[in-house]
Amino acid sequence: xxxxxxxxxxxxxxxxxxxxxxxxxxxxxxxxxxxxxxxxxxxxxxxxxxxxxxxxxxxxxxxxxxxxxxxxxxxxxxxxxxxxxxxxxxxxxxxxxxxxxxxxxxxxxxxxxxxxxxxxxxxxxxxxxxxxxxxxxxxxxxxxxxxxxxxxxxxxxxxxxxxxxxxxxxxxxxxxxxxxxxxxxxxxxxxxxxxxxxxxxxxx
Length: 204
Fold this sequence. Notes:
By secondary structure, the protein is α+β, with helices and mostly antiparallel strands. The protein has helices at residues 39-48, 113-126, 136-142, 144-164, 167-187, 192-203, and strands spanning 19-25, 31-37, 52-55, 59-62, 71-78, 84-91. It is elongated.
């Protein structure tokens, strides 16, 4: 856990012993759920490194304790009024009881297509390819010359679309280039998180 929350700084009185917890995927930034926690729940969270909440109906609740969809804590940060906590986590499965990634509407996740793509590429890399029918991603990961050739081709096609002023084709070629760039990055041991870290550092 990269950040330790001082429970003595929280104001539990406003919520009759509870604080609001906004739980966010530490990698994608997607808001997974909103729940409540009391001091006991947060003490369990700090001790175990996995999220615990206080449910009005179920009492103390270890997220994923039954389903296996635990949420490993990366950081806990209080807001300016000390009555809410942002929990950045690495989820082991869906956050919602409906089986969805987030308790919020699926279209709210559309901005996270890059993370979904990066996860798919990682999954293709981790799975053994079918020798008879390997996926296109697996072919690229296995063949350095092919993936570098495709990376160059997509860059040229994007440049050509921009020269032609073709907005729709430029968008398509950008998508193709980003996909091939992420595959090339994954092949050398990198990931989208590395790109995020570079951009975050530049933003500062």
